[in-house]
UniProtKB/TrEMBL annotation:
A matching Pfam family: Fer2_3
InterPro entries the UniProt entry points to: 2Fe-2S_ferredoxin-like_sf, 2Fe2S_fd_BS, 4Fe4S_Fe-S-bd, Beta-grasp_dom_sf, Helical_ferredxn, SDH/FRD_Iron-Sulfur, Succ_DH/fum_Rdtase_Fe-S, Succ_DH/fum_Rdtase_N
Gene Ontology MF terms in the entry: 2 iron, 2 sulfur cluster binding; 4 iron, 4 sulfur cluster binding; electron transfer activity; metal ion binding; oxidoreductase activity
PANTHER family: SUCCINATE DEHYDROGENASE, SUCCINATE DEHYDROGENASE IRON-SULFUR PROTEIN
ATP-binding found in the keyword field: no
Domain 4Fe-4S ferredoxin-type: 151-181
Cofactor annotation: [3Fe-4S] cluster; [2Fe-2S] cluster; [4Fe-4S] cluster
UniProt organism field: Nonlabens xylanidelens
NCBIfam families per the UniProt record, alphabetical: dhsB (TIGR00384), PRK07570.1 (NF005746)
SUPFAM superfamilies found in the cross-reference section: 2Fe-2S ferredoxin-like, alpha-helical ferredoxin
Annotated protein name in UniProt: Succinate dehydrogenase / fumarate reductase iron-sulfur subunit
UniProt keyword list: 2Fe-2S, 4Fe-4S, Iron, Iron-sulfur, Metal-binding, Oxidoreductase
UniProt key word Oxidoreductase: yes
């Protein structure tokens, strides 16, 4: 396949970025999107030019690092798929592909396609944990009965990989899907009840402080989420928040 790539290049967080066009030849349909990007970079390095910076780690859909906007869609055209698991067979010979970083106040661009997603770390640090009593009297977690349906839902919420596609897809750059998945994985389990009030209040406060917008129930986040995190999580987080505010 011959393709024309239009890639966002930005030297650093202060610099003014722009789209640069790169023609590429010999792309195989079995290559992953990131393997195609590797070839672009090999070409640039061989010419003595700066390679395109992009985030990646696991390349198997579990770390959430490979965040990029492909033809205006977070993680590209295939549903429930991260960029690293997207194959070039989804594109056609002669296609032009635009590749940009996430765009949100809470995710400032560091360089080219890499954004700073430490805002997500700070939201997690605000409450996405269960404090453990290490006195030696801790109850064995397996001795606490958990309803199967709730365990399954909690597990599903916990599959959020923190990639930020939900923010990138949202017209308000809202982080509600991410935050609510993290709130839900604890809210659904008895182990999470002890700190439930502080958790939701602190995480929502941090989310607002990081500059993310509010949810207007458009649902683009759920459509673009590579892990299929559902809007029900947002409804649950809102209920948890209301409960926390009312009951203190
Ligand atoms: S909710 Fe989905 S899109 Fe948002 S961070 Fe988690 S996995 Fe990524
Ligand atoms: S590189 Fe880890 S999810 Fe894509």
């Amino acid at each position: 396949m011959k393709l024309t790539l239009k890639i966002w290049r930005q030297a650093n967080s202060e610099a003014k970025g722009n789209m640069i066009t790169y023609p590429i030849d010999g792309v195989d349909g079995d290559m992953s999107f990131l393997e195609m990007m590797d070839i672009v970079n090999e070409g640039l390095i061989n010419k003595g030019e700066e390679p395109v910076e992009f985030d990646h780690d696991c390349r198997e859909g579990i770390c959430g690092a490979c965040s990029m906007m492909i033809n205006g869609q977070p993680h590209g055209p295939q549903r429930l798929t991260t960029t690293c698991q997207l194959h070039m067979r989804k594109f056609n010979d002669g296609d032009t592909i635009t590749i940009e970083p996430w765009r949100a106040a809470g995710f400032p661009v560091i360089k080219d396609l890499i954004v700073d997603r430490s805002s997500f770390d700070r939201i997690q640090q605000a409450g996405a944990y269960v404090s453990v009593n290490t006195s030696g009297n801790t109850q064995d977690a397996n001795s606490i009965p958990v309803e199967k349906a709730k365990a399954d839902e909690a597990f599903h919420s916990a599959t959020c990989i923190g990639c930020g596609a939900c923010v990138a897809a949202c017209k308000n750059a809202s982080a509600m899907l991410f935050t609510s998945a993290k709130v839900s994985q604890y809210a659904l389990l008895p182990q999470g009840e002890v700190e439930a009030t502080d958790r939701v209040m602190n995480m929502v406060r941090q989310m607002d402080m990081e500059g993310f917008g509010n949810c207007t129930n458009t649902g683009a986040c759920m459509i673009e989420c590579p892990k299929g995190i559902k809007l029900e999580n947002i409804a649950r987080m809102n209920r948890e928040y209301l409960k926390a505010e009312t009951l203190g």
